[in-house]
Write a structure and sequence with these properties.
single chain; alpha+beta; Ubiquitin-like (UB roll); Uridine Diphospho-n-acetylenolpyruvylglucosamine Reductase, domain 3; five-stranded mixed sheet; five-stranded antiparallel sheet
Length: about 475
């Protein structure tokens, strides 16, 4: 096996990483160091998809699209990346590129490489090519001039065409990488992680990096050590048990989505709307919880399902119920040397119904303004069990236990009306750029009315677009 140190496989060719003096993004390295300018920079924040590339999944041979602006070069060393240049060229274009021309799916063309990469990723997956899967695949790609109908037609017209990637050389076993003042350490299991924790005093954990990489400076003035969690085998496991599913803390949101699609279909929409495939393929379950944002999309549903978090650190392992995890705005109970090693999500009682709704300024690829998760059991029009959790209404994702208790043993209509009439006593949301306090209160009231409709009409409403 060739030495992979300071090497990336780009379009199946081994490329040495030389003269890189800062902890730059993969996007900047492709464009500025190797003149692969087909990969575009639009927002540089993961919103537009113009920088989409395809990356191997830890040397497994499977591939996935990501935003190259959100991943640092140190994270992809030793791995295989496919850019638009590796898909096709003027002399030998990919069929999807030809289809984009034939269907008039490109006008200014700036966003087109990103759409091509997203489309090819879908074509190379095992998903059926439908309007729904195409819309999801390109939900993270922004086009302001063409319109999406011709893009959808183009992808459909070449549904049987695929590209072949040679990922066999990429095994992702590099243990240490230094770029400028930043050193990346890549343990492959928890035992190796424990060794780093015992030896190093100052460091940062890094999982997918969709949030942290936006905050970290490119040029670090002081020496910094990053412990990458992506290669730790225990963190990437998914275990299906009779009464619950156990997700490693490093499991991506996309893998979470696929793991629960059949067993817990109520979670599909909220996970799909977590972000685009590019974001879901990079962001992790543990990372999203550790960010501890009051508008994190996963937390409310895990709260109403009474999930447990397994924590690993220098002093060993322990278990924390998620209700005891969040301590304040962007704060949680973890010590600096601790990570979420896995999340245990119980399946709901078969008599219960699960609802999870998110309101945002746009349906796809947007941060929530408010969200509401509900775990409820009714009998003969009476509420017998109820767990409520909301996001965007406090400094932390909030369980509404006091309100839930007041709604028990009431008729559905009476309980919902009580919640609407008295909501201000239980939440006091702030006003910000995403919505005023008044709007958030009214929005939550609207979600209670939605719940009322679902329960009275016995509907399993899985989409906020149903109403």
């Amino acid at each position: 096996m060739a030495d992979l140190k300071n090497t990336i496989f780009v379009n199946s060719k081994k490329v040495e990483v030389n003269n890189v003096h800062h902890d730059i993004t993969l996007l900047d390295w492709l464009r500025n160091h190797h003149r692969m300018t087909g990969t575009k920079e639009g927002c540089a924040e993961g919103d537009c998809g113009a920088c989409s590339v395809i990356i191997d999944e830890n040397g497994s041979g499977s591939s996935r699209p990501i935003n190259s602006c959100l991943i640092r070069l140190g994270q992809v060393m030793g791995r295989s990346v496919t850019t638009i240049e590796g898909v096709g060229c003027v002399k030998n274009p990919h069929p999807l590129q030809i289809a984009f021309t034939n269907e008039h799916a490109s006008q200014c063309g700036y966003c087109t490489p990103g759409f091509i990469m997203s489309g090819i990723s879908l074509l190379n997956s095992n998903k059926k090519i439908t309007d729904e899967t195409i819309n999801d695949a390109i939900s993270g790609n922004l086009c302001r001039c063409t319109g999406y109908s011709p893009i959808i037609k183009a992808i459909k017209s070449v549904a049987k065409n695929r590209i072949t990637q040679n990922n066999s050389q990429s095994i992702n076993k590099i243990k240490k990488i230094t770029l400028g003042n930043v050193t990346y350490l890549k343990p492959s299991n928890l035992k190796e992680l424990k060794k780093h924790l015992d030896e190093i005093k100052s460091f940062q954990f890094l999982a997918g990096g969709t949030d942290l990489n936006l905050q970290r400076p490119i040029i670090n003035q002081k020496e910094d050590k990053i412990i990458c969690l992506g290669s730790i085998v225990e963190l990437n496991k998914i275990t299906h048990l009779k009464e619950k599913i156990v997700l490693g803390g490093g499991v991506t949101i996309e893998s979470f989505l696929e793991a629960v699609r059949l067993k817990m279909p109520e979670l599909v929409e909220i996970l799909q709307r977590f972000g685009s495939p590019q974001i879901r393929n990079q962001g992790t379950v543990g990372g999203n919880l550790c960010t501890s944002s009051p508008i994190g999309d996963i937390a409310p549903i895990l709260l109403v399902l009474n999930s447990d978090l397994n924590v690993f650190g220098r002093n060993g392992s322990k278990k924390i119920n998620i209700k005891n995890f969040f301590k304040g705005y962007r704060k949680n109970v973890l010590q600096k040397d601790e990570i979420i090693s896995s999340v245990e999500i119980p399946f709901a009682n078969k008599k219960n119904k699960i609802f999870s709704w998110k309101l945002s300024k746009r349906y796809d690829q947007d941060i929530s303004t408010v969200s509401l998760a509900i775990n409820i059991q009714t009998h003969k029009n009476i509420i017998k069990e109820l767990h409520l959790a909301a996001g965007g209404v406090a400094a932390i994702p909030k369980m509404l236990d006091n309100l839930s208790n007041q709604m028990l043993e009431k008729k559905i209509d009476d309980a919902i009306q009580f919640a609407i009439d008295n909501l201000e006593q239980y939440i006091q949301p702030i006003s910000d750029l995403r919505g005023s306090s008044h709007y958030r209160l009214e929005a939550i009231k609207g979600l209670f009315r939605r719940l009322q409709t679902c329960l009275i009409q016995n509907k399993n409403s899985l989409s906020i677009m149903d109403f």
